[in-house]
Amino acid sequence: VLDYFASNEEMFAKLRASSQESGYDVIFPSADYVSIMMKLGMLEKLDLSKIPNSKYITEFALSKATYDPKMEYSVPYYLGASGIAVHTKYASNYEKSWNIFGDKRFKDRMVMMDDIREVLGAALVHLGYSVNTTNPAELERARKLVNEQWKPNLVKFDAESFAKGFASGEYFVSHGYAEAIFEEIPEEKWAEVDFFLPEEGGPLYLDSLCIPKGAPHYELALAFIDFIHRPDNYAQLLDRFHFPASVNIEADQYRTTIPFYTVEQLANYELKEDLGANLEMYNKAWETIRYVD
User: Fold this and answer.
1) 61, containing H or E segment
2) Which residue range(s) make up the domain with 156?
3) What residues contact residue 232 under an 8 Å CB cut-off, 6+ apart?
4) Which tens digits make up the pLDDT trace of 254-283?
5) Number of structural domains the chain divides into
6) d(CA 162, CA 174)
7) Which CATH number do you get for residue 36?
8) pTM for the full model?
């Protein structure tokens, strides 16, 4: 059985409802949900002696995985960040910063992701704050920045079709994931696109390989995780999506493509953490951005 979920929330809800009888052997949650499921006892402890290729996981990835730095319940799968794509035939002399969304020259030709943590995280970092702040005053400043300076220049917030819109020329500037954006553009036209990670940093995501509690084939699940991280296998993932070798450094020697961005560019990016009850502050701020004109 192979299932795809639209969000971590949907996957989490199914696992919670199944009461350890989901039938899944391996799941790929994001960092904040790994943390949540660890606390709730929803994950099997990993026998790393059965995952020898885990030795190739980078110190960089483990330094970001502060919730499980010894890989007791999760093995990093991929670590990356959203950035900004610009059509260079339509735009020039722009800031390589989140503040490009405040540039009125590109009004009604820009889009940001419809994602609460990505958008507010970008604004928080631009203002010099943590993407995980629980300070109401800092969050309010970020909300005002988005609402008053960025949102008036946007066509919309879009999590589903930002890449298609950018590829078609509807948007000159698009917030999003490099792998999604370049997937929609013929390779011969990639040179016309400037994709960059904003210089001030931003929110980081880390997807992991985990075994849910009660997995029917625990030993096979361990073998699968090890297979994924065999360097020549993992290199195929890097080639398919043009990812940097941010998680499995040994795989870099087997890759045949150039990554869309480098590991070094991710250095000042901050992992999105589980906010617990403080997420409600973000939800309220987001409601005024998304649903109030």
Assistant:
1) helix 59-64
2) 81-203+276-290
3) 251, 254
4) 999 999 999 999 989 999 998 999 999 999
5) 2
6) 7
7) 3.40.190.10
8) 0.90
